[in-house]
Amino acid sequence: MFDHAYGSYMKHAYPADELMPLSCRGRVRGMEPSRGDVDDALGKFSLTLIDTLDTLVVLNKLDEFEDAVRKVVLGVRLDNDVVVSVFETNIRVLGGLLGGHIMADMLKAQSVRLQWYKGELLHLARDLGYRLLPAFNTTSGLPYPRVNLKYGVLSPNSRTGTELDTCTACAGTMILEFAALSRLTQETVFEDTARRALDVLWEKRQKGNDLVGTVINIHNGDWVRRDSGVGAGIDSYYEYLMKAYILLGDDTYLERFNAHYMAIMKYISQPPLLLNVHMHNPTVSIRSWMDSLLAFFPGLQVLRGDLKPAIETHEMLYQVTKQHKFLPEAFTSDFAVYWAQHPLRPEFAESTYFLYKATRDPYYLQVGKSIVESLNEYARVACGFAAVQDVRTGRHEDRMDSFFLAEMFKYLYLLFSEKRDLPLDIDDYIFTTEAHLLPLSLSTARPPCPRNMTMFRRGHGEEEIFTRSCPSAQTLFPNNPTFTRTIRDAHKQLLQPGAERLALFRGIEFPLHDTRMEPLEILKNMGLTLLPLGDRSMQLTGIRHKVKGSLVLSEPYQACAAISNQKEVQGKMALAQRGECMFATKARNLQEAGASGVIFIDNAEGSCSEEMVLFQMVGDGSTGDIVIPLVFLFQKEGQVLLDALSQHRNVDVLLATKPMFLGEEKTDQPLSASQLHKAATETRTMMLTSAPDQA
């Protein structure tokens, strides 16, 4: 299979960056119709050849490797006037050159071959490193997403430098390659630059829960997209924190990874699913689909030693691949196709390899066999292997990305090989996110310098996280030799035809709303009833531990600063608008002003509960000091209260956990502190209504 793919590239495409397997020719930047950002990986530097270098050694194709090194040394230029992705160029080209250099040096030291080699690949890597450095010339230290290989970023000829933001993974997936380059060349600028970008991402995390967003402004560090997950846009940031600790021996990276990992397992992981949440509102998923890039995560969990969730998520992914032949680019929480494309991504094979290495369960050899069979049956074409445009129809796309040769065949070969089959001890190396091999001996190449860094806040669960640093099946699952099957079997039923599935993602049971319902009816179904009291007054009834108060608008209306109308708010039920700050901040300000409760009204014009996704008001990580009840209403329902307040002198509100009708309410007695806290808890729990964003 590898010979067919690599041979097709060399025959039909080299020295082009990629092979077009349906057209049987090379893809050259500017010569084919633009594919948008996908083409930013192409730099007219024989991308596929460089990306494949260390794969040739792993597969013991040493003649082909020596020939490929000669071709790169003699034929590759890096001063091309082309704009490339900093992220892709780093992981594929810089990583490929470093992996190739390390393999060439190893073979030369063993006197096997390449006695002519004098570090030419490392010289190219250094040249490329300096061409990437201008991307980091920003106020924050986060890199521009693109750089011109010849003119840098801000030159009049660069055609780049106007970008405002980049993805978290794009900024946070530099440290392995840049640190390796620094330690091999003894030039610290690369490692220091990558460290600085990681420091910014850590500092900009949501400190209440240690989550990060997906897209960040490179100039001021503000989050542009606040959804948080483990897939596209963030994935390899987490991976590089863990692997930087393994490669470089710096505890800071482990501490940061563990902080993020606890947040992932608390908010994002819903075994076997991994669903995105809002970084400021993480207790409810904000989308019901997953992208295929998260398939790397079980492999990362194996490195951390967390086998059970790794097995669960991997099994879910395997069931999806069995249903669709390949893993779709995105699929829903009930495993239907969301985006039908499959560009021959290797992440599922990667996790399969790591799970087999950790468990030695032959089941994962069968999984690997199924990957091989699907590739041969559904992706193999006359000139290589073609990406699948639609997994539902099997229609092909005229592309074979370089990562297919760099990663897919490497992981599959390692899965089925014995140690004696390999020309190197694979346990002496760490895989980059592009599966390039960096030696663990780099940790001793230069002692880490003392640095002032924000450290991990040790707390609940810390001991378990720091002690379980590598997987031990016998320790984690004593007296259960079939533990992997036991875990898998619990999830296989998810895709059985006709099987009834429970709701697999967080949320609440909420009655389906008839779109014809009026706002007053919606309020009633939520346990809130607006009742006329005479004397131009209205009453909103509701909860078992009733909390009563007259409505008053807070000033400022968004309640993000100290409340200026404290006398009016004292003992009243305050109305505050969503936006500008966390719910918890608003609640504390109004509680301090003496409000008996708060009703938040959405700031999105026209929002209503029957049209919005389920959502829960959440705090900032420590909300035990908030004891007043809090309720959230969308704009349409909240407008009922605003209209009532504008039309009547008094609007009294009675909050309860279930609907109450006129004549049912009893005279209220003063509540004790414990009753008030219980009422507040029940009210917050009850009001899980619908909205996708922060306060």
TrEMBL record:
Protein's UniProt name: alpha-1,2-Mannosidase
Reactions this protein catalyses: N(4)-(alpha-D-Man-(1->2)-alpha-D-Man-(1->2)-alpha-D-Man-(1->3)-[alpha-D-Man-(1->2)-alpha-D-Man-(1->3)-[alpha-D-Man-(1->2)-alpha-D-Man-(1->6)]-alpha-D-Man-(1->6)]-beta-D-Man-(1->4)-beta-D-GlcNAc-(1->4)-beta-D-GlcNAc)-L-asparaginyl-[protein] (N-glucan mannose isomer 9A1,2,3B1,2,3) + 4 H2O = N(4)-(alpha-D-Man-(1->3)-[alpha-D-Man-(1->3)-[alpha-D-Man-(1->6)]-alpha-D-Man-(1->6)]-beta-D-Man-(1->4)-beta-D-GlcNAc-(1->4)-beta-D-GlcNAc)-L-asparaginyl-[protein] (N-glucan mannose isomer 5A1,2) + 4 beta-D-mannose; N(4)-(alpha-D-Man-(1->2)-alpha-D-Man-(1->2)-alpha-D-Man-(1->3)-[alpha-D-Man-(1->3)-[alpha-D-Man-(1->2)-alpha-D-Man-(1->6)]-alpha-D-Man-(1->6)]-beta-D-Man-(1->4)-beta-D-GlcNAc-(1->4)-beta-D-GlcNAc)-L-asparaginyl-[protein] (N-glucan mannose isomer 8A1,2,3B1,3) + 3 H2O = N(4)-(alpha-D-Man-(1->3)-[alpha-D-Man-(1->3)-[alpha-D-Man-(1->6)]-alpha-D-Man-(1->6)]-beta-D-Man-(1->4)-beta-D-GlcNAc-(1->4)-beta-D-GlcNAc)-L-asparaginyl-[protein] (N-glucan mannose isomer 5A1,2) + 3 beta-D-mannose
InterPro entries: 6hp_glycosidase-like_sf, EDEM1/2/3, Glyco_hydro_47, PA_dom_sf, PA_domain, Seven-hairpin_glycosidases
Keywords: Calcium, Endoplasmic reticulum, Glycoprotein, Glycosidase, Hydrolase, Metal-binding, Signal, Unfolded protein response
Source organism per UniProt: Gopherus evgoodei
Pfam families: Glyco_hydro_47, PA
GO cellular component terms, semicolon-separated: endoplasmic reticulum quality control compartment; membrane
Sequence similarity: Belongs to the glycosyl hydrolase 47 family.
Gene3D superfamilies assigned to the protein according to its UniProt record, in alphabetical order: 1.50.10.10, 3.50.30.30
EC nos: 3.2.1.-
